Amino acid sequence: MVTQVIMPVLGETVSASTIVEWFKKEGEPVSRGDLLFSVESDKAVLEVEASAQGFLSKILVPAGQKVPVLTVVALITRTAEERIEGGPETREQGAGEQGSGGQGVRDSEAGSERLGPLPSVTLAGRLFASPRARRTAQEKGVTLSQVAGSGPNGRIEERDVLAFLAAQPKATPVAVRTAGALGVDLATVSGSGIGGQITKADVEAAGATKAAPAKAAAATEATSGGESVPVTGLRRIIAERMAASHQATARVTLVTEADASALVEAREQLKAAVEKEWGFAPGYNDLLGLIVARALREFPYMNARLSADPLAGAGGQAIERLPFVNLGMAVDTERGLLVPVIRNAEQKGLRAFGTELRALVERARAGKALPDDLTGGTFTITNLGMYEVDAFTPIINLPEAAILGVGRIQAKAVVRDGQIVARQMWTMSLAFDHRLVDGAPAARFLQRIKGLIESPYLLLG
C-alpha cells in the first residue's frame, strides 16, 4: 500500500508553495506524526507531519522547488521492499490526457496554457480516477497524472481536478514561452488580460523587475568586490508586493503630531495595576491598536479595499467597505517584515488584544506563523518608534486602503495656554490610496486617532 504525501493547502489565497527542507531521506522509516518537510508559502514557513507509518520510498519534489497545492510531493510505502513504478512510461493514460508528463496542458476553452506540477507516480502503471474526474479532466484538458488524489487509496475525484485547475496560473501560449525564456515563475506574475490572464507584456515586465536588481548587484560586485545576495524567498515576496503597491496606488501621506502625555500616564498606571495578573505589561502598540480599531469602526470608509465589480464587466472595480476590522501589526523578524493580523480587533478589549498580539508575534519571529495569521488584514499599523524614528512614509499593504506609520514618543517643548511646557509628543503618518478615499475624509480619520490618543478616557465611551 502506498500513501501519497501532498502539498497541503496553506490558506484560502495560497495556490502554490515551496519545499524548504526535507527532514527525512529516501528509504528512511517514518511514523505517523514525524516531521517530513518544511514548506514556505507566502510569508509563512510551516512543518508538515507524516500522515502514515512506513518508509519514505520516493521524494518527488526536491527542496527549493515550488509546486501547486495538492501536488504529490512524496510516497510512503508500508514496507521498504514495496515496489514503486512511476513516470510517464508507466502511468495509465486517462481520457483526455496527454502523453508527455510535466508539460503545460492547453485549456482549449480559455485559449491559454496551464503549467502543471511534476508527473504523478502510480503503482504498477495504474492510475485511479472516478468517472466524473476523468470526464472533467477531458473537458478541461488536464493530465490526470498531474493531479493528487484525495479519495480512497489516492483515487482522483472530480474535486481534485477542480482544485488543480484553480491552483494553476492562466497564461497565453506566448506568455508561457516568454516566461520559460526569461526564467520567470508565472505564479508570481499578475495578469492584466481578460479574466486575469497573464500576457507576454506581463511576463516581460516581471522579467525586467527581476533582472534589474541582479544586474545592479552584479555591476556593484564587479566594481567593489562586494557580496551579492539573491532576492529569494520572503525578500522576493516583500520586494514584489511593495513595488506593486507603489506602482498601483495613488498614495498620499498625511502627518500629524499628537500629545500622548495622557496616554503615557495611563499606560504607566495600567502596568502597575494589571501586569502581574495579565502576565504582560500593556504596550503602546496594544493601546494604539484599540484606538485605531475604534476609529475604523467610526470611519468605515478607511476600512476598505478595491474589489472586482461583477456588474461593471471585465476590469470593473468597486470599493468594498468591510464590516469587520482585521488589524495588521507589522513585525520585524530575522526573515524579514511580517504582518500578523488581529481579527475582529474592534470587538476585543485590551487584555485580549495584547494576549493575541503577543502569540502572533512569537509565532512570526519563530518562523512558525500559520497562513491565516498573515492574511485577511483590512488596515495595517507599522511602528518604527523603537528605532528613534520620528516620521516616515509607509507603503500601503494591498489591497488595503491605508496604513498608519508610527514614530517615537518624545518629550518636546510645546506651547500650552501661552506657556512653554514639556509634553510627550507622538508623530503619526497616515498613507492612504486616493483612489478609495479623498484627503479631507482621511484627515478626519487621522484627527480622530489623534483625539483618542490625547484623551484616552474616550475609549471608555
Taken as a percent bin, the fraction of beta residues is 15-25%
End-to-end Cα distance:
64 Å
Overall pLDDT confidence: 81
Structural class: alpha+beta
Strands in their spatial order, largest beta sheet: 12-21-20-19-15-18
Number of domains: 3
Could you give the order of the helices and strands?
EEEEEEEEEEHHEHHHEHHEEEEEEHEEEH
Described by strand count, sense and barrel closure, the largest sheet is:
6 strands, mixed
- Given as residue ranges, the uncertain stretches (5+ residues, pLDDT < 50) are 86-126
Output the CATH topology of the largest domain.
Chloramphenicol Acetyltransferase
Q: Give the CATH class of the largest domain.
A: Alpha Beta
CATH superfamily of the largest domain: Chloramphenicol acetyltransferase-like domain
User: Number of DSSP strands?
Assistant: 21
- In helices, the fraction of residues equals 25-40%
Tell me what you see in this structure.
The structure is a single chain. By secondary structure, this protein is an alpha+beta fold. The longest helix is centred in the middle third of the chain and has 25 residues, at 200-224. The relative contact order is 0.10. 30% of the residues lie in helices and 25% in strands. The strands form six sheets. It has a six-stranded mixed sheet, with helices on one face. Strands 1-8-6-3 form a four-stranded antiparallel sheet, with no helix packed on it. A four-stranded antiparallel sheet has the order 5-4-2-7, with no helix packed on it. It folds into three domains: 2-171, Beta Barrel (OB fold (Dihydrolipoamide Acetyltransferase, E2P)), CATH 2.40.50.100; 191-237, no CATH class; 249-460, Chloramphenicol acetyltransferase-like domain (Chloramphenicol Acetyltransferase, 2-Layer Sandwich). The chain contains nine helices and 21 strands. It starts with a strand and ends in a 7-residue tail after the last helix. The radius of gyration is 26 Å and the shape is globular. Helix 3 (173-182) packs parallel to helix 4 (200-224), helix 7 crosses helix 8 (350-365) and helix 7 packs across helix 9 (439-454).
